[in-house]
Amino acid sequence: MTTSNQEDRIHSTVELYERTSSAIQPRQIKPPRIKRPHTKSRNGCLNCKARRVKCQETRPHPCTNCVSRKMLCLYPARQKILQGGSGASRNDSHRGPQPPATPLRSQSEITPHAFSGDDLRFFHHFLTIAYPHLPFGSEILWKTFIPASAHECPHLLHAILSLGATHLSLIVPTGSKYTTQAVTHRGKAMKALGNALARGDQCSTTDLELMLATAYALTFQANYMTDGLLDFAVMVRGCAVITRKILNKHTESDMFKLLSPEAITNNVISQIPLTRYADPGALITSIETLELIQPLLVNGCHKTTYQALLSCYQGMQRSAREGFIGLTGIYMSWEQMEHQEFMEFLDEENHVSRALFLHYITIQIMMRPVFYLLRAPRPCEFAKDELPMHQWASRIYGCLPSPVRELVEWQARSTEPLRGEYESGTINH
Fold first, then answer.
1. pTM for the complete prediction?
2. Cis peptide before 388 (omega within 30 of 0)
């Protein structure tokens, strides 16, 4: 696939789902500046900057604060500290994920008065609870370097705020009041991401990596939306396309170390156990009901997705590891579709696609134990994180015509009880 085709597919997707909104706020008069009793240093590590505490600045060694808190000590790239100075040498880096040394290019300035008190709450919620765990091996970056870069990267900042707001709206009793703000930030993130992608080959490695971070943040945000299936599928495909662009241009990423298929195979898939799915009867029924859809497959999209779903079910019969490999094949089938083909596949009137999506949701629910295994423990876990996907399944089933609905009745019945338990709060992880 050519670079031009990749860019066209990304631009078309972003433009199709771009939602814009803006607000004009009165300019605020800044209070008189209070002079500090000491000279403020800008050379501290990212963790100390985030906590607003004095850093010992023991670069290239971890500072005492990070050592005592058992945190990965990361320093900002020297180009951002020494204007006009030389870049940091590679010997200044520490073990673990490394922030890129390339400065960001021509990002729009973000003014502090454009954000509200709620936005600070969304940002804090993202840092403590709602940060993504993908790409693999990047969880520390999501709490350190990536949010620290957001102030000069509009699409990333609005994506982070949208993710924090959407997750907060899902888990708190009065969360619906944040929905409008979440959608507004998502629209701004999509618009800014489209502008960034329009630069094409002028994008540096860091530019592309931060675009990928934005795409992942928007993917997780869609995953928490009650009507987010369409947006979720679009952003999953966007992540795959941007990843391919990074690997084709630079062979690897400085920020995300586990992007290539080889890296994922060696460092991620090898961690998945070889145990089989606990309910083999459910897999047999899933395969039998999937095969009922086969006579309805009318185009390449249907056939490719059908085969990927079947391979995933069959892989789960052998082991959790092979089931996970099969799941990646489903996402690969979305990436390989042409743009118009993919949009037709997502059409809500495409009932065959809807039925196939219901099988995809069933697989996602079956694979949850594997997903928990591959991510680091969180300070808090919320059962309602899983609710939107069950709502997607219920909505798909309810909108299908009776002849097609009968083909996926088992999938709907298997997901419906859990939806009720998640909504009532009677289920725990």
1. 0.75
2. no
